[in-house]
UniProtKB/TrEMBL annotation:
Gene3D superfamilies: Cyclophilin-like. SUPFAM superfamilies: Cyclophilin-like. This is Putative allophanate hydrolase subunit 2. PANTHER family: 5-OXOPROLINASE SUBUNIT C (PTHR43309:SF3).
Amino acid sequence: MKAGQRLTLKRPQHGMRSYLAVAGGIDVPPVMGSCSTDLKVGIGGLEGRLLKDGDRLPIGKSKRDSMEAQGVKQLLWGNRIRALPGPEYHEFDRASQDAFWRSPWQLSSQSNRMGYRLQGQILKRTTDRELLSHGLLPGVVQVPHNGQPIVLMNDAQTTGGYPRIACIIEADMYHLAQIPLGQPIHFCPVFTGRGTKSTARSATLF
């Protein structure tokens, strides 16, 4: 784009979000090494808040005039998300294990950037033992006491004590974030080696 030109953004035809790449990036003061915005804490980006009409975003200097368009991904067919069994997968009864992979899940309206709450068949454990707090990463699927899974997203906490039934491979997290409310979500088991290769292949596009 050139100075004076206007860019109009419309609703995406597929998925939930569109992305705008700006050469040189948005020139705002970094917080903890990032220029992104955390609305819950109110830091980063433009004064830590949502954008509004009339806002002006300063643009950084670009080191190159243009670059080849690549890495634009089509959404996967059927909303199939690949995942690995989690550390506490064996603590769920056989019916719950089967339901996790075979039953459709729907995204709850209570979902946010911290966690995607899923609605479907209640998952049950075969033990009542309490877990010590453990480390967490985006993609981990926790199951709280109500038996409804929660997928940790980019703004999730770093520790927790709920059992982890699965972990979504990093290569499919972008697709999960694009699934609208009301559409069914299906989890597919994947072997560690294949999941690692898919993630590495996605990383080469950035």
